[in-house]
Sequence to fold (117 residues):
Amino acid sequence: MFTAYSGSVSDPTTGTVITNATVEVDDPMEGALWTVEYEINDSRNRTYEIEHYMIINGTPEYRWATTLDPDENTVSERIGVPSSEQEAERHQLRIVRNETGADPTVVDSVNVTVRAE
Fold:
C-alpha cells in the first residue's frame, strides 16, 4: 500500500484567466487539495465557469462545474489520492466562458496529477 503522495499541476494553457494553480497532499485520508487562482477582466460581463474532469483511461470524464465569481479570485476542491491499484489520479480543470448566443468556449485549463510514491 502506498503511504506517500505527491502532486503536480501543469502550467495554464493560456494564462488568460488562471494566474496560479497548486495541489497539496497534506493528509492522504482527506485527499489532495487543488487551488486555482484566477482573474476575470471582462468588460462584456460574460460568465465564467470552472469545469472539473477526471481523466480515466486517457479520456476526460465530466464531474461538475461551478460559476466563478468575478469578485473573488480563488476556487478550491478536495480530490482523492490514488488507490493501491492506481499509479496516479489525473484531473483537468477547464475555465469556460459563456456568452449569450454562442457555444461555451474553453479559455484556459490546467492538469492536476496526484501520484503514489
